[in-house]
Predict the structure.
Amino acid sequence: MLDAATVNNSGANVNIESHSRSLKRKRYINAINYANFNNDPLQIIFEHKIFARKLSIFALPSPCMHDSLELSWVKDEQEEDLEQFECLKILIPNGEHVLSIVPDDYCHTPAGMTISLPLKAQILNNRQSERYNAVKVEAILTQNGCFYEGNLVNFNTDTLLVALNETVNPELRWINRDAEFNVILKKQDETVYTGNCILTATREYNGSIFHTFQILDSRIRRFKKKKYRGERFELQSPVQISFMHPLSTERCRIQAVDISASGLGLIEEAAHSVLIPGLKIPEMEMNLPGGTPLRCSTQIIYK
Protein backbone atom coordinates (compact mmCIF):
# COMPACT_ATOMS: atom_id res chain seq x y z
CA MET A 1 0.00 0.00 0.00
CA LEU A 2 1.24 3.44 -0.87
CA ASP A 3 1.06 5.67 2.18
CA ALA A 4 2.86 8.87 1.29
CA ALA A 5 2.91 11.41 -1.48
CA THR A 6 4.75 14.66 -1.98
CA VAL A 7 3.60 17.54 -4.11
CA ASN A 8 5.55 20.05 -6.16
CA ASN A 9 3.53 23.13 -7.05
CA SER A 10 6.23 25.61 -7.95
CA GLY A 11 7.76 25.70 -4.50
CA ALA A 12 5.91 28.22 -2.40
CA ASN A 13 2.33 28.49 -1.19
CA VAL A 14 1.68 31.61 -3.25
CA ASN A 15 1.67 31.67 -7.02
CA ILE A 16 3.57 34.80 -8.00
CA GLU A 17 3.78 36.50 -11.37
CA SER A 18 7.06 38.07 -12.39
CA HIS A 19 7.58 41.47 -10.81
CA SER A 20 7.56 44.77 -12.63
CA ARG A 21 7.87 47.44 -9.92
CA SER A 22 9.65 48.05 -6.65
CA LEU A 23 9.21 50.01 -3.41
CA LYS A 24 11.91 51.77 -1.42
CA ARG A 25 12.59 50.54 2.11
CA LYS A 26 10.93 53.51 3.80
CA ARG A 27 7.65 52.70 2.02
CA TYR A 28 7.62 48.92 2.34
CA ILE A 29 8.32 49.24 6.08
CA ASN A 30 4.80 50.73 6.25
CA ALA A 31 3.42 47.43 4.92
CA ILE A 32 5.40 45.52 7.57
CA ASN A 33 4.05 47.73 10.35
CA TYR A 34 0.52 47.40 8.99
CA ALA A 35 0.92 43.61 9.12
CA ASN A 36 2.15 43.97 12.72
CA PHE A 37 -0.88 46.12 13.61
CA ASN A 38 -3.30 43.53 12.17
CA ASN A 39 -1.35 40.58 13.59
CA ASP A 40 -0.86 39.26 10.04
CA PRO A 41 2.06 36.86 9.54
CA LEU A 42 4.74 37.18 6.88
CA GLN A 43 5.63 34.12 4.80
CA ILE A 44 9.29 33.10 4.74
CA ILE A 45 10.47 30.81 1.95
CA PHE A 46 13.49 28.62 2.68
CA GLU A 47 15.34 26.18 0.42
CA HIS A 48 17.32 23.14 1.55
CA LYS A 49 21.03 23.64 0.90
CA ILE A 50 21.49 20.11 -0.51
CA PHE A 51 18.13 18.81 -1.73
CA ALA A 52 16.72 22.17 -2.97
CA ARG A 53 13.44 21.39 -1.20
CA LYS A 54 11.31 24.44 -0.43
CA LEU A 55 9.98 25.14 3.06
CA SER A 56 7.38 27.77 3.95
CA ILE A 57 7.21 29.17 7.50
CA PHE A 58 4.98 31.93 8.88
CA ALA A 59 6.29 34.55 11.30
CA LEU A 60 4.82 37.63 12.97
CA PRO A 61 6.71 40.93 12.52
CA SER A 62 7.61 43.28 15.36
CA PRO A 63 7.23 47.05 14.85
CA CYS A 64 9.92 48.21 12.44
CA MET A 65 11.54 51.64 12.17
CA HIS A 66 14.94 51.24 10.55
CA ASP A 67 16.83 48.59 8.57
CA SER A 68 16.44 45.65 10.97
CA LEU A 69 13.34 43.50 11.54
CA GLU A 70 12.54 41.03 14.32
CA LEU A 71 10.22 38.12 13.44
CA SER A 72 8.59 35.61 15.81
CA TRP A 73 7.59 32.16 14.60
CA VAL A 74 3.83 31.58 14.55
CA LYS A 75 4.53 28.00 15.66
CA ASP A 76 6.54 27.73 18.90
CA GLU A 77 8.72 24.89 17.63
CA GLN A 78 10.06 24.23 14.14
CA GLU A 79 10.15 20.62 12.97
CA GLU A 80 12.98 21.31 10.55
CA ASP A 81 16.61 22.10 11.31
CA LEU A 82 16.81 25.57 9.76
CA GLU A 83 20.61 25.39 9.73
CA GLN A 84 20.14 23.08 6.72
CA PHE A 85 18.13 25.73 4.84
CA GLU A 86 18.82 29.15 3.40
CA CYS A 87 16.29 31.99 3.25
CA LEU A 88 15.24 32.73 -0.33
CA LYS A 89 12.75 35.53 0.25
CA ILE A 90 10.13 36.95 2.57
CA LEU A 91 6.60 37.71 1.35
CA ILE A 92 4.75 40.67 2.86
CA PRO A 93 0.97 41.13 2.36
CA ASN A 94 0.11 44.54 0.91
CA GLY A 95 -3.53 44.80 -0.13
CA GLU A 96 -4.08 43.30 -3.58
CA HIS A 97 -0.35 42.75 -4.02
CA VAL A 98 2.45 40.89 -2.29
CA LEU A 99 5.85 42.43 -1.58
CA SER A 100 8.95 40.28 -1.83
CA ILE A 101 12.26 41.02 -0.12
CA VAL A 102 15.56 39.13 -0.07
CA PRO A 103 17.30 39.85 3.26
CA ASP A 104 20.78 41.37 3.10
CA ASP A 105 21.64 39.26 6.14
CA TYR A 106 19.73 37.16 8.66
CA CYS A 107 20.04 34.90 11.68
CA HIS A 108 17.44 32.62 13.25
CA THR A 109 16.85 31.37 16.78
CA PRO A 110 14.35 28.91 18.29
CA ALA A 111 12.00 31.87 18.85
CA GLY A 112 12.24 33.61 15.51
CA MET A 113 14.47 35.45 13.08
CA THR A 114 16.29 38.76 12.73
CA ILE A 115 16.85 40.16 9.24
CA SER A 116 18.62 43.12 7.67
CA LEU A 117 16.19 44.81 5.31
CA PRO A 118 17.28 45.44 1.70
CA LEU A 119 16.93 48.85 0.07
CA LYS A 120 13.98 47.79 -2.08
CA ALA A 121 11.08 45.33 -2.18
CA GLN A 122 9.64 43.91 -5.38
CA ILE A 123 5.90 44.39 -5.97
CA LEU A 124 4.37 41.11 -7.08
CA ASN A 125 0.96 40.34 -8.46
CA ASN A 126 -0.70 37.84 -6.18
CA ARG A 127 -2.61 35.45 -8.41
CA GLN A 128 -4.70 33.59 -5.86
CA SER A 129 -4.99 29.86 -6.33
CA GLU A 130 -8.43 28.64 -7.33
CA ARG A 131 -10.94 27.94 -4.55
CA TYR A 132 -13.05 24.79 -4.58
CA ASN A 133 -16.46 24.22 -3.01
CA ALA A 134 -16.57 21.57 -0.32
CA VAL A 135 -19.33 18.95 -0.37
CA LYS A 136 -20.73 17.79 3.00
CA VAL A 137 -17.49 18.15 4.95
CA GLU A 138 -17.73 18.53 8.72
CA ALA A 139 -15.21 20.90 10.33
CA ILE A 140 -14.18 20.55 13.98
CA LEU A 141 -11.98 23.24 15.54
CA THR A 142 -10.28 23.22 18.92
CA GLN A 143 -8.46 26.03 20.70
CA ASN A 144 -7.44 26.33 24.37
CA GLY A 145 -9.84 23.57 25.40
CA CYS A 146 -12.81 25.04 23.50
CA PHE A 147 -14.55 22.94 20.86
CA TYR A 148 -16.37 24.30 17.79
CA GLU A 149 -18.38 22.45 15.13
CA GLY A 150 -19.23 23.68 11.66
CA ASN A 151 -18.97 22.98 7.95
CA LEU A 152 -16.22 23.55 5.41
CA VAL A 153 -17.59 25.92 2.75
CA ASN A 154 -14.65 26.12 0.34
CA PHE A 155 -10.89 25.73 0.30
CA ASN A 156 -7.61 26.03 -1.53
CA THR A 157 -4.19 24.77 -0.51
CA ASP A 158 -3.55 27.87 1.63
CA THR A 159 -6.86 28.62 3.34
CA LEU A 160 -10.08 27.06 4.62
CA LEU A 161 -13.44 28.87 4.83
CA VAL A 162 -15.49 27.41 7.70
CA ALA A 163 -19.09 28.30 8.65
CA LEU A 164 -19.93 28.19 12.37
CA ASN A 165 -23.44 28.69 13.75
CA GLU A 166 -23.75 30.60 17.04
CA THR A 167 -26.62 28.45 18.32
CA VAL A 168 -24.51 25.30 17.95
CA ASN A 169 -21.36 27.00 19.23
CA PRO A 170 -22.22 29.22 22.24
CA GLU A 171 -18.51 29.52 23.11
CA LEU A 172 -17.65 31.45 19.94
CA ARG A 173 -17.02 34.52 22.10
CA TRP A 174 -14.00 32.74 23.59
CA ILE A 175 -12.18 32.53 20.26
CA ASN A 176 -8.68 33.99 20.51
CA ARG A 177 -7.51 35.39 17.16
CA ASP A 178 -3.89 35.36 18.34
CA ALA A 179 -3.69 31.63 19.11
CA GLU A 180 -3.49 28.63 16.80
CA PHE A 181 -6.41 26.34 16.03
CA ASN A 182 -6.35 22.63 15.36
CA VAL A 183 -8.71 21.83 12.49
CA ILE A 184 -10.17 18.40 11.79
CA LEU A 185 -12.12 17.78 8.57
CA LYS A 186 -14.41 14.77 8.36
CA LYS A 187 -16.18 13.18 5.41
CA GLN A 188 -18.88 10.66 6.32
CA ASP A 189 -17.39 10.27 9.84
CA GLU A 190 -13.91 9.55 8.43
CA THR A 191 -11.14 12.02 9.26
CA VAL A 192 -9.55 13.18 6.01
CA TYR A 193 -7.50 16.12 7.29
CA THR A 194 -5.99 17.48 10.50
CA GLY A 195 -3.75 20.51 10.71
CA ASN A 196 -2.84 23.73 12.48
CA CYS A 197 -4.26 27.06 11.33
CA ILE A 198 -4.59 30.69 12.33
CA LEU A 199 -7.70 32.84 11.97
CA THR A 200 -7.21 35.63 9.43
CA ALA A 201 -10.73 36.95 8.69
CA THR A 202 -14.30 36.77 10.01
CA ARG A 203 -17.63 37.86 8.55
CA GLU A 204 -21.29 37.27 9.43
CA TYR A 205 -24.00 36.32 6.97
CA ASN A 206 -27.52 34.95 7.39
CA GLY A 207 -27.10 33.71 10.97
CA SER A 208 -23.73 32.05 10.46
CA ILE A 209 -20.20 33.29 11.07
CA PHE A 210 -17.70 32.56 8.32
CA HIS A 211 -14.08 32.19 9.40
CA THR A 212 -11.10 32.15 7.05
CA PHE A 213 -8.20 30.08 8.36
CA GLN A 214 -4.63 30.22 7.05
CA ILE A 215 -3.04 26.76 6.91
CA LEU A 216 0.30 26.78 8.73
CA ASP A 217 1.76 23.39 7.87
CA SER A 218 3.60 22.94 4.58
CA ARG A 219 4.53 19.40 5.62
CA ILE A 220 3.62 16.78 8.22
CA ARG A 221 5.81 14.32 10.09
CA ARG A 222 4.46 11.01 8.76
CA PHE A 223 7.53 8.90 9.58
CA LYS A 224 10.29 8.99 12.16
CA LYS A 225 13.17 11.21 11.12
CA LYS A 226 15.88 9.21 9.36
CA LYS A 227 19.58 9.95 9.20
CA TYR A 228 19.67 9.20 5.49
CA ARG A 229 17.03 10.20 2.98
CA GLY A 230 15.56 7.43 0.81
CA GLU A 231 16.54 7.60 -2.83
CA ARG A 232 13.99 8.95 -5.28
CA PHE A 233 13.83 7.73 -8.87
CA GLU A 234 12.66 9.92 -11.73
CA LEU A 235 9.96 8.29 -13.85
CA GLN A 236 10.94 8.00 -17.52
CA SER A 237 7.40 7.24 -18.73
CA PRO A 238 4.43 9.40 -17.72
CA VAL A 239 2.36 7.94 -14.89
CA GLN A 240 -1.06 9.46 -14.25
CA ILE A 241 -2.61 9.49 -10.79
CA SER A 242 -6.38 9.79 -10.48
CA PHE A 243 -8.63 10.05 -7.42
CA MET A 244 -11.85 11.57 -6.13
CA HIS A 245 -10.95 14.55 -3.97
CA PRO A 246 -12.29 13.88 -0.45
CA LEU A 247 -13.33 17.52 0.11
CA SER A 248 -14.81 18.56 -3.25
CA THR A 249 -15.73 15.06 -4.60
CA GLU A 250 -14.32 16.18 -7.98
CA ARG A 251 -12.30 13.70 -10.04
CA CYS A 252 -8.65 14.80 -10.16
CA ARG A 253 -5.90 13.66 -12.53
CA ILE A 254 -2.29 14.54 -11.69
CA GLN A 255 1.02 13.41 -13.15
CA ALA A 256 3.62 11.60 -11.03
CA VAL A 257 7.23 12.66 -11.62
CA ASP A 258 9.25 10.45 -9.28
CA ILE A 259 8.94 7.52 -6.89
CA SER A 260 10.65 6.21 -3.76
CA ALA A 261 10.17 3.30 -1.37
CA SER A 262 7.69 5.33 0.68
CA GLY A 263 5.79 7.42 -1.84
CA LEU A 264 5.37 9.39 -5.03
CA GLY A 265 6.24 12.89 -6.13
CA LEU A 266 3.37 14.64 -7.91
CA ILE A 267 3.35 17.89 -9.86
CA GLU A 268 0.40 20.25 -10.26
CA GLU A 269 -0.24 23.83 -11.37
CA ALA A 270 0.02 26.20 -8.40
CA ALA A 271 -3.02 28.20 -9.56
CA HIS A 272 -5.13 25.01 -9.61
CA SER A 273 -3.53 23.11 -6.75
CA VAL A 274 -5.84 20.79 -4.76
CA LEU A 275 -3.47 18.82 -2.51
CA ILE A 276 -3.09 20.06 1.08
CA PRO A 277 -0.28 18.64 3.25
CA GLY A 278 -1.94 16.28 5.73
CA LEU A 279 -4.88 15.46 3.42
CA LYS A 280 -5.79 11.76 3.31
CA ILE A 281 -7.02 10.27 0.05
CA PRO A 282 -8.92 7.03 0.74
CA GLU A 283 -8.52 5.65 -2.78
CA MET A 284 -5.97 6.67 -5.40
CA GLU A 285 -5.39 4.95 -8.72
CA MET A 286 -1.98 4.84 -10.39
CA ASN A 287 -2.16 4.09 -14.11
CA LEU A 288 1.09 2.38 -15.13
CA PRO A 289 1.93 2.23 -18.87
CA GLY A 290 0.58 -0.99 -20.36
CA GLY A 291 -0.29 -2.41 -16.95
CA THR A 292 -3.16 -2.94 -14.56
CA PRO A 293 -4.10 0.16 -12.53
CA LEU A 294 -2.71 0.08 -8.99
CA ARG A 295 -5.14 1.21 -6.28
CA CYS A 296 -4.00 2.46 -2.90
CA SER A 297 -4.71 4.91 -0.09
CA THR A 298 -2.35 7.81 0.46
CA GLN A 299 -1.63 10.96 2.44
CA ILE A 300 -0.02 14.20 1.28
CA ILE A 301 3.21 14.75 3.22
CA TYR A 302 4.61 18.07 2.01
CA LYS A 303 4.64 20.55 -0.83
Helices lie at 25-37. The longest helix spans residues 25-37. Residues 17-125 form a domain with the Pnp Oxidase; Chain A fold (CATH 2.30.110.10). Confidence is low (pLDDT under 50) at residues 8-20.
